[in-house]
Specification:
- This protein has ten helices and 14 strands.
- It has 313 residues and is of the alpha/beta class.
- One of its GO terms (molecular function) is DNA binding.
Length: 313
């Protein structure tokens, strides 16, 4: 049974995004094109693959099988393309790198250096949550990416740390925990300002929380921290945008967790209560990832080398 690779790619992205609209935006095509190609794939398979529910979709039983095997097939095609193209070295070609939205601000200098050094290489940065990027690297859909550690240990990915920052608590100025925070005793500073203080996780046990969506590695880490502390977090809202979390905190909706570099960038900081999280101390550790047993193109290796030079390791 012949299967159109492009139709398979469109179906996999639609299943991943759970939306024709989001898939079309991600692939830079029209929604009608996505719908047509998915329908074509369903005709080729002879079974419905998606259940349409308003603006969202979910997989049928057959769709789940095609989705899993489809990711594997697309990974094989992608690796084949890379290995053939790589024979021409770095004179031309393309490289896709997965970067979580909260991490992208660190990569501007590396992107600039890479483009100057390899002007004929097309570099595409794909933004997804860390967990999605880990899965894409493991499947071979992309060669290299970045994530927040610890990653999914079951994927057995190679990691190379390039940054590490403490997690801070950010919330309304009148939050109950803001009155309990302990002033910093060591005169530590962040972004040129004296640290406000520290706060323990248990002081937040009754606080309403606004957090990043479940696709983000930071949320995975914080949920594990709460579980180990035997605290049930009161999550009242979630968003995929860290600056919106800060806006909700300013509005008094709840408290959130942000890594130190993002706290330093908050324009609304003067209207917020901020404190470094201790007991336990939680770090935001960033790392490059790739699959250790898979062919790594010249372009991917060049990208990692440039990042090491510009960002350190």
């Amino acid at each position: 049974m012949p299967i159109d690779i492009r139709a398979l790619r469109y179906f996999v992205e639609t299943a991943r995004q759970r939306s024709f609209t989001q898939a079309a935006s991600s692939l830079y095509v029209t929604q009608s094109t996505i719908s047509k190609m998915v329908r074509q794939l369903e005709d080729e398979i002879g079974q419905p693959l998606l259940i349409r529910e308003g603006k969202s979709v979910r997989l049928t039983d057959v769709g789940k099988v095609v989705y899993e095997r489809g990711q594997e097939a697309l990974g094989v095609v992608h690796r084949l393309t890379l290995e053939v193209a790589d024979l021409s070295s770095l004179g031309r070609g393309q490289l896709h790198v997965g970067i979580p939205p909260m991490v992208n601000l660190f990569f501007s200098p590396a992107v600039s250096a890479f483009r100057k050094r390899y002007p004929n290489l097309q570099l595409t940065l794909a933004e997804h949550g860390g967990q999605v990027i880990e899965q894409q690297v493991a499947n071979g859909e992309i060669e290299v990416g970045a994530t927040v550690l610890p990653g999914d240990s079951g994927l057995a990915l190679e990691t190379r740390q390039f940054a590490k920052y403490p997690i801070w608590v950010v919330g309304p100025r009148d939050a109950a925990w803001a009155k309990e925070r302990t002033a910093g005793r060591t005169g530590t500073r962040t972004a040129g300002r004296t640290a406000v203080g520290t706060i323990s996780l248990h002081a937040l046990s009754q606080e309403p929380l606004v957090m990043l969506t479940e696709a983000f590695s930071l949320t995975r880490t914080m949920r594990q921290i709460f579980l180990e502390a035997r605290i049930e977090p009161r999550v009242v809202a979630q968003s995929g945008h860290w600056d919106f979390l800060a806006s909700m905190a300013v509005a008094g909706l709840g408290t959130t967790f942000l890594p130190e570099p993002l706290v330093a960038r908050l324009e609304s900081r003067d209207r917020l209560a901020v404190a470094r999280l201790i007991e336990p101390t939680v770090d935001w550790t960033l790392a490059h990832i790739w699959s250790p047993g898979r062919y790594l193109s010249h372009a991917a290796r060049a990208w990692l080398d440039v990042c090491d030079e510009v960002m350190g390791g």
